[in-house]
Amino acid sequence: MPFSRLFTGFSQSRYRIGILGASVFLICIGLPVLHPLVIVAAMFFSAWGVHELIRLADARKYDPSHLVAIPFSILLTWLGSCDHVVFIHALPITLAALVVMSFVTHMSVYGANGSLSSVPLTVFATLYLGLSFGLGVHIVCYYTIIALMVILGTWATDTGAFLVGCRCGKHKMAPTMSPKKSWEGLFGGVITCMLACVVFRLVANRYATDGFPLDLVSTLSLGFLISIASVIGDLGESILKRDANIKDSGKLFGGHGGLLDRTDSLLFAFMVTYLFLSVTKHIPY
Predict the structure, then answer these.
(1) Is 0.90 topped by the overall pTM?
(2) CA–CA–CA angle 111, 115, 121 (5° rounding)
(3) Which of 55, 120, 217, 249 could bridge 258 with an S-S bond, Cβ 3.0-4.6 Å?
């Protein structure tokens, strides 16, 4: 009994810490004066995420380069904090340098051995973490209110999918990738996300100084895309872990897993949101 109480108390304390951390995270995003802290944290998380992804690759005896992937992921994340003109012009130069340095580093260390897997994996790890965090930082810095909606929508998707899936889930969506996910859960997550985004828009239009930049149709459309992107991001990280035969990507958050386990959905949601804002001309080219 004492052990049971100790375990329960520990579990509850972890959730309290998680709620506290999430609250601090949202406050930092919502207050522009604290955005430098968000940028620094994103740069650290980007580098740590690359480390976790390379750990998965190591389990399959692949050898992508830390020396290239981590610095370039930090650089891409930092570029997201720059204004849009600088970001757009610096991005292709950075990506070209990434590809060149991936080849040069591999040739210098290993020659031709393993190049067909290691070089592409170096580029992929950098883009998966560095570019997605960079786009997320860009949205946080220049479209803060939409960034808050993306986070809310991602959490709403996860919550709605879990509740509906547990109660009504009968038809497996991807049994070989994520056995617990169901089509009913997906539907519940999408509806919950879209409703949460509409409510967020109403609140923002009432209380935010400049209102909300998207109309109702655009808000519903973006809510739908955020939800689908969240699920794809979750499934994407699941297949990487299954291929590596590893349960959690890391132990950064203790019993809650690694960074990739906690941010997989959000990273995809930010990437899709950036694409949506670009296509709908809310972000100028």
Answers:
(1) no
(2) 135
(3) 249
Q: Residue 180: helix, strand or coil by DSSP?
A: strand
List all residues 6 or more positions away from 198 whose beta carbon is below 8 Å from its beta carbon: 216, 219, 220, 223
Nearest to 225 by CA among 269, 195, 181: 269
Q: What SS3 state is found at 159? A: helix
- Distance of alpha carbon 72 from its chain centroid, rounded? 17
Q: CA 275, 278, 283, 285: dihedral to nearest 10 degrees?
A: 120
Q: What average pLDDT does this structure show over 165-169?
A: 84
Closest CA to 124 of 187, 158, 76, 166: 76
Sign (positive/negative) of CA torsion 42, 46, 48, 52? positive
C-beta neighbour count of 242 within 10 angstroms = 13
Side-chain half-sphere exposure of 217, counting CA atoms within 13 A: 1
Q: What's the rounded Cα separation, in Å, for the pair 25 and 45? A: 13
Confirm if 264 and 234 have CB atoms less than 8 A apart.
yes
Cβ contacts of 9 within 8 Å, gap of 6 or more:
none
Q: Give the CA distances from residue 136 to residues 200, 241, 275, in Å, rounded to whole numbers and listed in that order.
A: 19, 23, 11
| Rounded CA separation 100/274 (Å) | 26
Q: Is the dihedral of CA 57, 262, 13, 4 positive or negative?
A: negative
At residue 123, φ and ψ (nearest 5 deg) are: -65, -45
pLDDT, tens only, 76-93: 999 999 998 999 999 999
Here the tokens at position 67 are 């020396």
DSSP 8-state secondary structure symbol assigned to residue 181: E
Rounded to an integer, what distance in angstroms lies between the CA atom of residue 168 and that of residue 165?
5
